Amino acid sequence: MKKIGVFIISLFLFASAVFAATQEEIEAHYSAGLKHGNLGETDEAIKEFNAIIKAGPAGIPQDYYKQTLREAYFNLGILYGKKRDVAKSIELLKKTLEVDPDYNRAKYYLGCSLLMEGEFGEARAYYEELRKAGISGDPLNPAAGDYLKDTFDKIIEREVTVEYIPLIDDSKPIKVTVKGTFGADEVSVKDTLLAIDKVAYIMNQPFAANIKADFIRSKEDGTIIIEKWVIDDGKNKNEYWVTYDSTPPVDFPYKIMITVSDKEK
Predict the structure, then answer these.
(1) Which terminus, N or C, of the chain has the lesser number of Cβ atoms within 10 Å?
(2) Helices 104-116 and 147-154: crossing angle, nearest 10°?
(3) DSSP 230
(4) Does residue 112 contact residue 216 with C-beta atoms inside 8 Å?
(5) What is the pLDDT of residue 8?
(6) How far is CA 109 from the centre of its chain?
(7) How many other C-beta atoms can be found within 10 angstroms of the C-beta atom of residue 32?
(8) Which helix (H) or strand (E) segment is 89 a member of?
């Protein structure tokens, strides 16, 4: 048994020596990952950054490996975001912050990814943390703007009351109150009510004066915002998914196109 034990330990040490990467190899993977990423070769870049994570810290200065590991996780998070795998992007950006809890670039892009997934509260927490630190957007790419600020400036807790004439009973206007975390102002609230009312009318669903509206998620560049509006008449709650598109087709007569569905988007 002792000989077998010694053999296994020796084999383990041999394997560690064989697969342990040198600092030069780590640097080569990192440089190749950046190069592939800049060329739009996402899958190749992912392989290079994953190689850094798999290599482990053996034989490499601790501070150097920690910084490189942080950047590997961070770049993987960005790359998976580009692949539209937002859940994977969130996972990797959170791993970045496990390595370096003070890494503000990761906080910013994590907030953006959370916002796209509809995790409004968690995204706002990162936004507020960055705002208090005086950081706006990506610290290394300020020209790209601040997606979090642009979104949270529009999506705030609010209550809007308007007069509206329901299609189901066009005899007189009623006062409709919309409460929640949403981006519509008084004018676009009326437009949204009309769009929802058309769907409700076709489906023979009731229209009510009390409505709860909440931001769900948005496209990364902020051109598309999706909200959930719930109409509660005291007996039933009917959900409507509202999409605001600020880049409608060129022949569309208005600046924002509003579409409504009774199915989640």
Answers:
(1) N
(2) 50
(3) E
(4) no
(5) 37
(6) 8
(7) 17
(8) helix 86-99
The token duo for 2 is 């002792």
pLDDT tens, residue by residue, 119-133: 888 998 999 999 999
Pairing state between β 174-182 and 210-218: parallel
pLDDT at position 57: 77
Q: List, in order of start, the domains of the chain with CATH numbers.
A: 19-145 (1.25.40.10), 155-261 (no CATH)
User: Which stretches of the chain drop beneath a pLDDT of 50?
Assistant: 1-19
Contact 208, 202 (CB under 8 A): no
Amino acid, res. 232? D
Q: Give the span between the Cα atoms of 55 and 128, in whole angstroms.
A: 36
- The single-letter code of the amino acid at 196 is I
Residue type at 162 in one-letter notation:
V
pTM of the model: 0.69
Burial-class residue 240 by CB neighbours within 10 Å (0-12, 13-18, 19+).
buried
Strands 257-261 and 174-182: unpaired
